[in-house]
Amino acid sequence: MTRRRYLLGAIAIVLIAIGVFSSENVTRLDFTAWGRGMWQRPTDLVAALDIERGQRVADLGAGKGYFIPYLQDAVGPGGVVFAVDVEADKTAALEERFPDAPVQVILGGYDDPKLPDRSVDLILVVNTYHHIDDRTAYFAKLKSDLAPGGRVAIVELDRELSGLLALFFPEDHASTLGNVRAEMRAAGYRELEVKEMLPIQFVVVFAPE
Ligand SMILES: C[S@@+](CC[C@H](N)C(=O)[O-])C[C@H]1O[C@@H](n2cnc3c(N)ncnc32)[C@H](O)[C@@H]1O
User: Fold this and answer.
1) Which of 84, 86, 124 to mutate to test ligand 1, by most ligand atoms within 8 A of the CB atom?
2) What is the pLDDT of residue 16?
3) Which of 89, 90, 127, 128 to mutate to test the pocket of ligand 1 (most atoms within 8 A of CB)?
4) Where are the chain's structural domains?
5) Using a 6 Å cutoff on CB, does residue 173 contact ligand 1?
6) 17, 68, 145, 209 — which has fewest CB within 10 A?
7) What confidence category does residue 15 fall into, taking pLDDT thresholds of 50, 70 and 90?
8) Which of 20, 27, 71 lies closest to 45 in space, CA to CA?
């Protein structure tokens, strides 16, 4: 079973690499990293989000906590990282993996992350936006969790990937930047910037109007 999983993983990496190499986005790969680090570039991505020491950030849809160590480093010991997920087995595993401050694990609801009101400086949403139902209502409500000057950064697989890459990712696990922009505008946000830095995902940052 494990050997089969490794084999499938290796095949997926080779296929993704072929897809990336056949696109103009090859220059956005991190050739010093391996596996997910190569295309996700977590250190560069978190650095690009301009998080300050002591800030309170949330990883919305934290999953297994891939981004938590990078966010922990960014906020430092005086900050807070809220790790939110809706699946209890995931939050239990997160609590086990990150038992100490500054990580606070939250079992959120599907329509409410249960973050503390008016207190989060940055809410990072990686590969999770497309999982959320009724996004306009969800993100409209989420504004009440942001501290003054707070931002929401959305990182999604780009549904408009061209060429070979488009074959490797199911459409329902991706979004278009245009759709995210329209939904966030409807939820009462203005776009701050798009960070053109990842090979297969877009990174877009919003703040409340
Ligand atoms: C594809 S995983 C991404 C995990 C992580 N962000 C990463 O990039 O490795 C999506 C995660 O979002 C969670 N999720 C789905 N709907 C959610 C919601 N409404 N609020 C918070 N988390 C949600 C799922 O349980 C899952 O762990």
Assistant:
1) 86
2) 63
3) 128
4) 2-208
5) no
6) 209
7) low
8) 71
